[in-house]
Design a protein that fits this description.
Length: about 475
């Protein structure tokens, strides 16, 4: 244990159960005269009784020395001292103790220098709960009282908070995200520094912001997104949320602002990425759709379609993948659609929303209802239950709901002489509309005869008079 004097460290004899593969890497490094520890999130999660997602290792050995000790390694970040050691099909990041140079882009140090001091390496880390190291020989190395903060349930920066945030502004979002995942509060000094540094998030890539936002949204405490508003973060990364928080809903069906309603609705769905994002965005357009009648009642006509449109803008700005964007926006667009409770209407609703996303509609509708006032809540929930039951009955009957289930295909129409792709699509959609009305007509012979009549009528309409 070099360079860790008694004033600057705290060592606790705490036993952490290390995976066999991690123990092997640590032991091999130490057997060759190097220091080596599991470090960061894996130590934190182990102390909290959680199963770590991955195990990171820090060592006094330099990258070339690490590479010589293991049969298979990958240079994943060698400029910053990181080598991935492969153990079977599993990779473990092994990083040399380092001191970061000046951060010039709000994300990466311009240069790093390797050090023999574990303390210097721990100093550069973001939060005290992530700045602990462990091996079986020395126990828990806790130089910044991370264990105390775990016990208190606090997120606190290592050293001066403003320094940590100026090094990497994404740490502002990480502080809130860790709080949401762990149910911890952010220490006062750290909160004040977040407010001060919030504008620096403009320097952070959209992809990194998106990743942190999603982790917060699917956390056990999605309501912590309000902290992003209180700390001035959404003003930078998603100003639409600020407008939601500041827009009242003076209407019998509501008892919260648009933003508060949104947050409560997120709490009423399971921690699924698509569902939580759907609730986050389902009313995003209400502030711009709001009108107030002569009785002082607010209305938000057309907000579902407009919300889907605005959500797409946010998704593109934050560089979300297309599949997530499309799935969420479908739910947003149709979240307030209430068809008549007939099988025919429900089949058409499935056609509008899309069969893949349709089952999620009911979770979205219930969350939306539960986050409203109690006015007519029982009736709205009863409607949703009946709506879902009709859908389940339709599925049980195996009714045709989309072109894939239609008894005829484009190939069948080609055999009838239809060559143009556009006309094939028109005919198939025409047949599907008939089957949605009357599922029993989804029979190949019947539909082919209808197709022939359609082709004949279309040809006559186009013939010169």
């Amino acid at each position: 244990m070099q360079d860790l004097n008694i004033q600057n460290k705290q060592i606790r004899q705490i036993n952490i159960c290390l995976p066999q593969k991690v123990s092997f890497i640590l032991d091999r490094l130490m057997q060759h005269g190097y220091e080596a520890y599991a470090v960061g999130g894996c130590v934190r999660d182990s102390l909290l009784g959680r199963v770590p997602g991955d195990w990171d290792i820090t060592t006094s050995a330099q990258p070339a020395q690490v590479k010589r000790l293991f049969a298979k390694t990958v240079d994943t970040g060698i400029a910053h001292g990181t080598v991935t050691v492969m153990y079977g099909q599993e990779g473990f990041e092994v990083t040399t103790y380092r001191i970061d140079g000046k951060y010039e882009d709000g994300r990466h140090p311009k240069e790093v220098s390797f050090t023999r001091s574990l303390l210097e390496d721990l100093k550069r880390r973001d939060f005290t709960i992530n700045a602990m190291a462990y091996n079986r020989q020395d126990g828990l190395v806790d130089a910044f009282c991370g264990m105390d903060d775990l016990e208190k349930g606090e997120i606190r920066c290592v050293g001066r908070p403003i320094d940590r945030f100026q090094e990497d502004a994404l740490r502002l979002l990480r502080a809130v995200r860790f709080g949401a995942q762990l149910g911890f509060k952010i220490a006062d000094e750290t909160r004040e520094a977040i407010k001060e540094a919030a504008p620096d998030l403009r320097r952070i890539s959209a992809e990194r912001i998106q990743a942190e936002l999603v982790k917060l949204v699917v956390s056990p405490h999605p309501e912590r997104i309000v902290e992003l508003y209180e700390l001035g973060i959404t003003k930078i990364i998603m100003p639409e949320f600020d407008r939601m928080m500041e827009t009242a809903q003076n209407h019998p069906h509501h008892c919260y602002s648009v933003g508060e309603h949104t947050v409560y609705s997120m709490m009423y769905v399971e921690p699924d990425k698509i569902l939580r994002l759907a609730m986050l965005f389902h009313d995003i357009a209400k502030p711009i759709c709001r009108t107030t009648d002569t009785d002082g009642i607010d209305h938000f006509h057309g907000h579902p379609a407009k919300s889907a449109e605005m959500a797409k803008q946010v998704f593109r700005r934050l560089k979300f993948d297309r599949d997530t964007m499309n799935a969420v926006c479908r739910l947003v667009n149709w979240h307030d659609y209430n068809p008549p409770l007939t099988k025919k209407s429900v089949r058409r609703a499935v056609r509008k929303v899309g069969q893949a996303q349709f089952p999620a509609v009911f979770a979205v509708k219930r969350a939306d209802i539960l986050a409203q006032s109690s006015y007519q809540r029982a009736e709205k929930l009863a409607y949703t239950d009946a709506y879902e039951q009709l859908y389940q009955d339709i599925i049980a009957q195996r009714d045709c709901l989309d072109l894939k289930q239609l008894a005829v295909s484009g190939r069948d129409l080609i055999s009838l002489g239809v060559q143009q792709g556009r006309q094939i699509g028109e005919i198939l959609n025409y047949l599907l509309e008939i089957v949605l009305e009357e599922p029993d007509k989804n029979e190949k012979v019947y539909l082919l005869n209808l197709a022939k009549s359609y082709i004949s009528d279309t040809s006559n309409d186009q013939a010169p008079q």
